[in-house]
Specification:
Layout lengths: L4 H19 L6 H28 L5 H24 L5 H23 L10 H19 L2 E2 L3 E2 H35 L1
Antiparallel strand pairs: 1-2
């Protein structure tokens, strides 16, 4: 279904992107902007879990929802990474690797679906772990301060985003290796 509760939550993640970006253009102090953007990112990132749970619970799974969900995740992550690069809170190389992998694997999945080999590049736990690490790293970097006067979020966010880069490369290699037999068969 195009408009059911799970799909509306997925759409909310897409709508959230200009809101999160827009926070950094408001005339507030940076700590306030950081806190608001962080809370918004966390709330919208949690809709990723909620929409899947609700779709299964309410028996409202759909092909459209299955398509839109990862697109919304990628938009949210990519836009947030670009904001973090602009704010000089992460390296452009980090953004290029993560965004490049998302484009490459999305294209690979599209091609594999066209040739009837979609299952060979089905979502794997490694890809889910990569997404989870990204979704934890990004709010730390958006917050960019001391949390509870104990946790240096920039330090932890930087460590986690580099871990996400490693998982990004690893998961891309995994998916390419899984697709390689089909690629060889089609190219030769």
């Amino acid at each position: 279904m195009f408009f059911n509760l799970p799909t509306l939550l997925t759409w909310a993640r897409i709508v959230a992107i200009p809101l999160i970006v827009g926070v950094f253009y408001l005339p507030w102090d940076s700590a306030t902007r950081n806190a608001i953007a962080t809370v918004m990112f966390i709330v919208f990132a949690l809709t990723d879990w909620a929409d899947g749970w609700l779709a299964r619970r309410l028996n409202q799974t759909s092909s459209f929802g299955a398509f839109l969900d990862p697109v919304a995740d990628k938009f949210l992550v990519c836009a947030s990474l670009l904001v973090l690069v602009e704010l000089d809170r992460t390296n452009a190389i980090v953004a290029l690797i993560i965004i490049g992998r998302e484009i490459a694997i999305s294209a690979l999945r599209e091609w594999m679906a066209q040739i009837g080999a979609r299952k060979s590049v089905a979502v794997h736990m490694l890809g889910k772990l990569k997404t989870t690490v990204q979704m934890v790293a990004i709010p730390f970097l958006l917050y960019d301060g001391m949390l509870f006067r104990v946790v240096d979020t920039r330090l932890w966010g930087t460590a986690l985003i580099w871990l996400a880069v490693v998982l990004t490369i690893w998961s891309m290699a995994y998916y390419l290796r899984k697709a390689l037999p089909e690629i060889r068969a089609r190219v030769s």
